[in-house]
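Q: I'm writing a short explainer about Large ribosomal subunit protein bL17 for a general audience and would like to include a description of its predicted shape. Could you first generate the structure from this sequence?
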Amino acid sequence: MRHGKKINHLGRTDSHRKAMLANMASSLIKHKRITTTLAKAKALRMYVEPMITKSKTDTTHSRRIVFSYLQDKETVTELFRDVAAKVANRPGGYTRIIKLNNRLGDNAEMALIELVDYNEVYGKDTDAAEKKTTRRGRSRTKKADAPAAETTATSEEATTEAPAEEAAAPAEGEEAKEA
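A: Of course. Here's the predicted structure. Afterward I'll give you a sentence or two in plain language.
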């Protein structure tokens, strides 16, 4: 019986599984997304998310703990410098798993695992989500939109006047050439 055994052994020995997860975590941190099987992606998420949480506190102790798992100095540096700065205000859920089509050779379920804050496609929705109405029912951006509308109106007036002056200038030049 496997009561309380949460670790998926992935059909490997303990040392092989740890080495494989360390290599996959290093690749995920370096490349920000990797394609693998669904079972490995789920195991990798459980492996890498505590390390990203550790990287939020940049101390020598936390760096040594993360290095004991990854065994790659450049990856640890990138994790503590770049990734930790991006996920500083996120309370968890640093990775996203997206299911892909099955692999052609053995029909294995494939998945794309990526760091959430490095995806440009989904990052644009957060800007739209921030524009909410207040409890009084008016939008936060109404005051900001009103001066913007005035400035666009003045810029439109300036652009409508400019072509008229430009149109008049060549006409005078043509008259001078004719004379």
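A: For your explainer, you could say: Residues 14-121 form a domain with the 50s Ribosomal Protein L17; Chain: A, fold (CATH 3.90.1030.10).
Q: Perfect, that's easy to follow.
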